[in-house]
Structure formats: C-alpha cells, structure tokens
Amino acid sequence: MDRETFHNCCNLVKRQGQQEFSSHFVDYIEKDISYSKFFKNYLLSNQPCMFSRRFTEDWNCRKQWVTEEGKPNFQKLLQEFAETEVPVANCNTKEYNANPKQIMPFKEFIQYWREYIQNGHSSPKGCLYLKDWHMMRNFPEHNAYRTPIYFSSDWLNEYWDTIEVDDYRFVYMGPKGSWTPFHADVFRSYSWSANVCGRKKWLLYPPGQEEFLRDCHGNLAYDVTGPVLQDKDQFPHFEEACQPLEIIQEAGEIIFVPSGWHHQVYNLEDTISINHNWLNGCNLDIMWEFLQQELSSVQREIEEWRDTMESWHQHCQVIMKSCTGIDYKEFASFLKTIACNRISFLNSCPETASTCESVASETLCALGPHHAAFDLQRVTQILEMLLSNEDFKRLEPSALSFKPDDLLQEIREAMNSIM
C-alpha cells in the first residue's frame, strides 16, 4: 500500500447499507492491476470481481491435477492423496440447512466419482462433494498454488496459523451437479475461489437482501431457486428481493466474493477449486457487527434463564463459541495477534520494505509499512469499541492474557513511527 492510499483510507467507515450494487455485471480483471487499485475498488467498496485465468496459469495444481482435455486427472491425484482421509458431503441430503458430511479415503471418493461419470452423472449413493478439505495445511510441501497478492492481507489464516489450531484454506472437488446451498461465509469474511478445472455458476445477493429470503420462522432459505420460495405464506418477503448476481466462472478464473454477500454455487462440470475465507482491516467492522448479532441471538434464546444462572453471561459466550467458532475473549486475542505482528514489523523494518525480509514476514514486507499502519488503525478502532461493549466488560478479569489498554498504547507508539 502506498502513502496516498493509506491517507485516503484513514477515515474508513462502515459500508453496509451505504452502497448500491448492480445485479447485471461484475468487473473482469484481465491483466495485473495495482494492489492499491484492488484495495480501493473492491476491498473497501465490498464489490465482487473476477480475475482471468492468467492469474493461475503457473500454479502447479493447474498443471498436474488436470488432463490435457481439461478434466480432473484422477490418476495423478491418486498418486498424491490415495490414502488421505477427506470430508465428503452428500448434496442430495439436507440436514440443518446444510449437506451432511462423512469422512472417507480419497481413493474411495475418486472411485465413486469415476463410477458417477460412467453412469451419466448419477449414483444410488447420491451426489457426493469433497469440500472443506485442508489440503494445504496437511500437504504444505506440495506447493499446489500461490495466493495472489490481492488476497494476501489475510488476518483470519494469519491468526489461526499462529495458534496452530485451524485454518480456512480449502480444496473442493465435485462432479457435475454438485452444489453448495445458500449461505454467507464464516464470520462474514471475504472469500476467493479459483477453479483449477471445470466451471461453476454463482448466485450472489448483496448484504441485506438475505432478509427477504427468510421463511416465516426467520430461517434462511436452503435453495434460493426452490419453488417453495414462491409460497407467500412460507416466504412472505421473497418478492421484495432483488435478482441475484449470476456469474459463470470458467476454468482457471478466480472469483472474489465480498464480505456478507450470501451465495449459492453449482458445479456445471466436474470441477476442482481452491477456496480461502479471509478478512482484514477492511471488513473487520463487519465481523465485529456479526459477532454482536450472534451473541444477541444467543441471549434471546436463553433469556428465561438469566435470573436463575449466576454465570449466565459466561454461558452465552460458551454457546456463542460453539455456534460460530469464536467468542469475545478469542476475538480480543485475535486482535492482539494481528496488532503485535504489525508492531514488531514497524519497529524492526526500515522504510523500504524490500530490505525487511530477514525481520518480518514475507506478506507484511510485500504490502509495506503503510499497510501495517492501516491495519493498526483498524485494530485500534475495533478494540476501542470492544472495550466499551457491556458484554465484553462482563468477562472475568482473568479471561484475557493481556491488558487491552496497554496494547492500545503500544499501537499508538508504533503508529507514531510512520505518521
């Protein structure tokens, strides 16, 4: 990030409810653009876009996992992953508004997939879809692909890599006809998805439109193309929803899905894709708003026990974490990790990021000190909101391993070095 972009972004405000989105087209990025342009036009404005296959043509997975005819190379994939246990969903079965998953050996899934194709893309086992496979975490030596610079400011995976608990980098493999039901991504994060081979159809709705796609009980639609949505008794507001943004993604192309955009995805052919969920300073406020909404929902659900449970507020945090994967305590730790990495970078890195590689991570060096300063500014804004939040104040004093006020002071001192 350059100095001009940094100063233009210093007064970043929430975007939700302030943008108008077109449902008729999406920007197509054919050739390299500057990071600053992508940051301004798509991250800050929370707008979708598509990158051409040029951005993935040198990936090892596109060379090795795909046949000359553009189909999945089952033989090569079996050589690499035959005995690996992988998560597989059944697209023909609905369970809690999602497809139920099972774990099976990779070679068993490939055998099913081959038989599925031979049988005219049908099987008595249903339509199985390998999804949410942590291939990169389990096989880092494969160097299957390289994250484009535009998606490299990835706090979500930076944090979970640090604590070595989880990550949000996935491989998806599925036959023609496999699909993912209507949803928004974890923590209302961004996502990017690259087709190694095959084609997908995306249906995307801008933030807020999902409220028209709830049934009379407040539940989100499972399939936004289902005939049941035409029933006004069950989906009373469906007619108020805008038409979705419909995108066909070809082999090699990368789609950027903005924060809070609900979507439904179909594999039009036998398809392999790389998918990352990620967030950073641009959509951190959306994540914080989402967490507050999730906690409020939990509190409403168990409101009747409030006066009979001494630790009611702590129980709400426990339930929230079981449902979303994070609570206020871990969110604070997440902010601390991101801040400390950037403070260390600014304190040890000279003005030219190209000479920093020995003292800071490759990503922070590539993005530069002004990006680190922007990140710290955003952490400061959300951390101040967190400290004034009544539910956060109710956490046990011993819950945090650090003092937020001390962290704020450290951030301010680091910021002074670049301002």
From TrEMBL:
Ranges annotated as spanning the membrane: none
Q: Which cellular component terms (GO) are annotated to the entry?
A: cytoplasm; nucleus
A GO BP term, please? positive regulation of translational termination
Cofactors named for this entry: Fe(2+)
Q: Which SUPFAM superfamilies does the record cross-reference, listed alphabetically?
A: Clavaminate synthase-like
The reaction(s) annotated as catalysed by this protein in its Swiss-Prot or TrEMBL entry are: L-lysyl-[protein] + 2-oxoglutarate + O2 = 4-hydroxy-L-lysyl-[protein] + succinate + CO2
In terms of Pfam families, this protein maps to: Cupin_8
Q: Which UniProt keywords apply?
A: Iron, Metal-binding, Oxidoreductase
GO MF terms here are: 2-oxoglutarate-dependent dioxygenase activity; catalytic activity, acting on a protein; metal ion binding; sequence-specific DNA binding
Domain JmjC intervals: 136-295
Family note: Belongs to the JMJD6 family.
Which PANTHER family does the UniProt entry name for this protein? Answer: 2-OXOGLUTARATE AND IRON-DEPENDENT OXYGENASE JMJD4 (PTHR12480:SF6), ARGININE DEMETHYLASE AND LYSYL-HYDROXYLASE JMJD (PTHR12480)
UniProt protein name = 2-oxoglutarate and iron-dependent oxygenase JMJD4
The organism named in the record is Chanos chanos (Milkfish)
